[in-house]
Amino acid sequence: MSEAALSIREDDPVLGTDFAREMLRQMRALDTYGTCDNWPVERILEPFVLTKEKKREIPVIGDPDEIVVARVKAFYNAISALIEKECGLMAVPMINLTHEGFGRALITVGKLVVMDRTLRDVHRFGFPSLSRMKDEADMLLSVALEIVGQHPKVAGM
After folding, report:
1. pLDDT tens-digit profile of 3-42?
2. Are 98 and 131 within 8 A, CB to CB?
3. DSSP class per residue in 87-137
4. Cross-strand partners of 105
5. Pair 8, 45: CB distance under 8 Å
6. How far apart are the C-alpha atoms of 112 and 129, rounded to whole Å?
7. In CA terms, which of 3, 102, 104, 123 is 20 to 30 Å from 63?
8. What is the pLDDT of residue 58?
9. Are 50 and 44 contacting, i.e. CB atoms less than 8 angstroms apart?
10. Segment (H or E) for 104
11. Among candidates 43, 45, 18, which has minimal Cα distance to 137?
């Protein structure tokens, strides 16, 4: 993929956020062979951005491959890591997917379920822009932290 084809700009302010740094950590953790060690951040996060044009190229019905499933896991792992950072309690993501790309993503803190998301059409997982991905993560993070704040005893179990 050439640099000109990237839909994330090098100077995008989202790249300096805690969320983008955590997403970068999660994506680099998936790269066991060091293939993307010299890649810029925007190239590593590029697969998460699905513009309308890119989404049109993906068939409506399809099965997700391991790479897409790994991206979904990286997204929810990053949110879990940010929950841990904020509240100091271990957050555990659990993702259950069928081979057809339907399933559920949960994040638990102690015995408390702080996020429950139904997943559909995982083969088309992505966001219109990097800022929309961050907004979605921020919303999930704030709701999760609010739930932990309302039920600290259960979260501490």
Report:
1. 446 778 887 888 889 999 999 999 999 988 888 889 999 8
2. no
3. HSS-EEEEEEE-TTS-EEEEEEETTEEEEEEEE--GGG--BSSHHHHHHHH
4. 95, 117
5. yes
6. 31
7. 3
8. 85
9. no
10. strand 103-109
11. 18
In the chain the domains, ranked by start, together with CATH numbers, are 9-155 (1.10.3100.20)
Q: Write out the two tokens for 132.
A: 């929309």
Looking up tokens 């069928």, which residue turns up? 98
Query: In sequence order, what are the beta bridge partners of 116?
Result: 106
Which of 8-17, 71-80, 98-107, 108-117 is predicted least confidently? Answer: 8-17
Residue entry with tokens 């057809």: 100
Task: Kindly state the tokens that stand for 65.
Answer: 């491959």
Looking at this protein, which amino acid is placed at residue 137?
Answer: A
